[in-house]
Each structure stands twice: as C-alpha cells, then as structure tokens.
Amino acid sequence: MNAAPPSPAVERPVQERTLLTRVRRMASLIPTPWLITAGGAVLLAATAAFGGLQTVPPKPVPVVSVGEQYSGSDLEMTVQGVELRAKGGNAASFPDKEKHEKVLAVIVDVVNTFDKPRLASGSGTPSPAVDGIHVDGIDEKPLIAYADGSSGSVWLQPDVPVRLVLSWVVGPDELHDGDEVRLTLPDSTHSVGTNVQRGVDIWDEVVVGATVTTTVQEIPASEEDAS
Fold first, then answer.
1. How remote is the C-alpha of 91 from its chain's centroid?
2. Considering all CA atoms of the chain, what is the largest pairwise distance in Å, rounded to the nearest integer?
3. Model's pTM, two decimal places?
4. Cβ-Cβ contacts under 8 Å for 104 (sequence gap 6 or more)
5. Is 147 buried (19+), middle (13-18) or exposed (0-12) by CB count in 10 A?
6. How far, in Å, are 22, 82, 165, 218 from residue 100 at the CA level?
7. 100-158 per-position pLDDT tens digit
8. Contact yes or no for 154/146 (Cβ under 8 A)
C-alpha cells in the first residue's frame, strides 16, 4: 500500500523553521558595527523627518537694576549701591593706608525667605549664600558685615530684612569713581541631606541667577569721618 503524501499542514512548520534558521545564519554573518551603523542611519532618518536635531537655547540670565529685588537661593537680595572707600567704615575689610589700598563695598538688603535662620556666608566656591555675590574681575569671596556696625557672625533670621556690607580690599589703581562694575547674584537648589548629613539643609548646584551692572561711587575719607 502506497504511503499517503505528507499533509501541507505538517510540512508548513518544517519549512518555516528552515527559513528562520537560514535568516538567523545570515544575520550572524553580518558584522555588529554594520548593524549599529544601520540603526544609526535609521535613527537619523527618523530625526530628520521630524525636523532634525535641535539644541535648546539656554535661558538668558536675568538682569536687575540697583534697587530692584532679586530672589534666589531662598534669599531676597537688593543691591543698593557700590562704593569705593578710603577707609573700611562699617565694612569688615581694612585697607593698608601706606599701600594706598581702598575698600570696595557693596551695600545689599537681604531677606531670608527660608523658614530657619541661615548664615549669610556659605562654604565652597561659588557660594549659594550672600557671599556668593561676585564682582567681575575679583576672584576672592567678600567679607560680610552688618551695615549698622554690629559685630559677630552674620545670621539671617526668617523674614527679617537686614542691610549688609560686602567688601573687598583693592589696589589704588584697580577701580575709580564712576567705573562700571558688574555683579553676579547666586541661585542654587535646596535639598535635605541624608546619611552623614541627614536632616541638614543644603543649597548646592550654584549658578548665576542674575546680574547687576552699576557704577562705583567713591567716598572720600573726609566724608567717611563725617558719617
């Protein structure tokens, strides 16, 4: 008795497996770099179809004026003026008279908008605190003092306005009356520490939050003595 021919339903899976085996073998012969290149080409083609690769332009840094309030690092900072002093006055910097040094003083009103007291100075450079205010051309961090002459560490109580003097000692030829200076004001990100710093409030990722451009007003020694 002649055997019945195999049913197509039985042959189809065998044929499919054979075809799949051949495809796998062919794929294994294609070098991996070719596959990566081909995949990249497909990605670029798809990107081009949707408008190409576009970079997002950085946001411009805000510009504020003297007397205009700026908020950053959980602080409200308002620069009131920049002075060049023959003497330190109520600043924490002391110039050398024999070297004809002077004090560059930035007067700034500050309000701590955080719900806990904070020091006006911060660790690290750049600083996220008030001493993170930077004058172009001066690398050092400023010294900070109360404008009313109070001594001690400068603390910022929540929601209590305070006027501060940031100061640097400068040489006799570095700055003059009427010179234009540019200040940068800090901004940062607040987080709460974990592990070793568990529960500690941290301000990091410091960036330039705004700039202030103004002119220097020189205060003669006679006027400082009279004040």
1. 27
2. 131
3. 0.74
4. 82, 83, 84, 85, 135, 138, 167, 168, 169, 170, 175, 216
5. middle
6. 89, 19, 21, 14
7. 999 999 999 999 999 999 999 998 899 999 999 999 999 999 999 999 999 899 999 99
8. yes
